[in-house]
Design a protein that fits this description.
The longest helix is centred in the middle third of the chain and has 17 residues. The protein is mainly α and 109 residues long. It has a domain of 38 residues. The protein is 50% helix and 0% strand. The termini are far apart. The C terminus is likely disordered.
């Protein structure tokens, strides 16, 4: 298999001419309705990683790290559950404290 080489100026000009001839932008598909466009705008959000709850938890983790100077530990020494946002394992005590905070919040509902 040939290695990926940068296109020469001649190749780039040829591809530009082909694209202008075939006009692929006129045949493109995509959402046409406002509902479809709204749904497509959420394509980059996966598995709730950027949900308000996850962002709040991540902010708590960062605040805890800054306040206590907690250091990441090797995954083999951490709990089996890791942070879904940054995929790092922190000292297990942080999870006890943060999970306790969430339990307190849920009791108020």
């Amino acid at each position: 298999m040939a290695a990926n080489k940068p296109w020469s100026p001649a190749r780039r000009a040829f591809q530009a001419a082909v694209a202008r001839k075939h006009r692929p932008w006129e045949k493109s598909t995509g959402p046409k309705t406002p509902a479809g466009k709204a749904r497509a705008s959420q394509n980059g959000i996966q598995h709730g990683r950027f949900s308000e709850r996850e962002l709040d938890l991540f902010a708590k983790i960062r605040a805890y790290i800054e306040a206590t100077g907690a250091k990441p530990i090797h995954p083999a020494k951490a709990r089996s559950w890791t942070c879904p946002l940054c995929r790092t394992c922190l000292a297990p005590s942080i999870w006890d404290e943060l999970e306790g905070d969430e339990d307190d919040e849920n009791d108020n509902e």
